[in-house]
Design brief:
3 strands, 8 helices, mainly alpha, binds manganese (III) ion, 3-stranded antiparallel sheet, minor pseudopilin epsh fold
Amino acid sequence: MKFELDPLPYAKDALAPHMSAETISFHYEKHHQTYMNNLKNLLQGKPEAEKSLEEIVKGATGGVFNNAAQVWNHDFYWKSMKPKGGGEPTGAVLDAIKRDFGSYSDFRTQFQTAAVGQFGSGWAWLVNEGGKLKIVTTGNAETPMTKGATCLVTCDVWEHAYYIDYRNLRAKFVETWLANLVNWDFAAANLK
Ligand code: MN3
């Protein structure tokens, strides 16, 4: 792998006012970049450095796993948001949500509850597992992609994701993320 972050899919101020340019600057240029730097240092001169990021995440443990998975999770997170995102999806994603959660409103409530209920640092995900959509949460760097699930979107619920804009109010952040930020086009592409 190249050990370079993918560029952000939008300008740093493109998600304001729901997510500030300051949050994105710290999160992408400091947190995300640090995981990449750590991974590069850990794998320098080792055969794993030739593998793809996905292969490294799936095969690693300990510090290599933590940093590689956080690189992957954050790349997936940036793509899970877009300017003027959020709200109720349409098309195949909405159909699958209705099939597996009953209604969009029920999905939203369950996602909110799961994301707010994840104790400490972690992630809330919408995944496709064997043809059924599920909401899962993971702690720290853990990621459903190592467990055979196809990830559709993820919300980062580490404090660094929301503390500048929302302080301690994770519930307000998740509510805003669902209403204004989540990228259902990305979910639709991952569902195909
Ligand atoms: Mn983060």
